[in-house]
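Methods — Computational structure assignment.
A single polypeptide chain was analysed. Its primary sequence is given first, followed by the predicted tertiary structure written as structure tokens.
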Amino acid sequence: MQESNFYTVIIPAFNEANHLPKCLEAIIDQSEGHKVEIIVANARSTTDDSKGVSADYPCQFIDTPHNSRAAQMNHVAQMAKGNILLFVHADVLVPKEVFKHIDEAVGSSKAYGWFSYRFDNQGFLRRINSFMTRYDGAYAGGGDQCIFITSSVFRALGGYNEDYCIMEDFELTRRIKNMEIPYKIIPVPATVSARKYVKHNYLKVNLVNLKAL
């Protein structure tokens, strides 16, 4: 009988007290029947009450010595107990049955993968963006898509590239593809905050992302 998977969910956070409750609740709601530990990887320069907010939930809160999201996630991944790591941004709500879908993917020899997503505030361009996340492409495999990876592969790859202040997730996905490591796109949507698109111009956000790549 195959041993069940043990998940370590890692949430990088920087002043995310307003978003952490819903993020944590969504993970906890889906964790029934699965072995899951949740770790909030907090940025050194956080000034809000993320720690106090997280204390209301069954999770570990780690004040990392870093302000880079890649470094925060790498730092916490070193102490992860799970054989599967799931990286969830603090303003993202995981899909329904997220762990069941990952179990199936890993069970079919996929060591890496991600989900599609939809925005919590859907404008025309954001609807197109959401639709395209069901498919593979140059912009597939971003952190908003709830990236999962076996801990053995993550460590063998050396984790996220800390030279990237943003878009470290796409860089990791690119390495996975170049090394022909089996991966899977799961067309079940996470729910992503549209806050950066509401605050900034849609084109501006994507141009910044493109430059970072």
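Note: The first strand starts at residue 6 and ends at 13.
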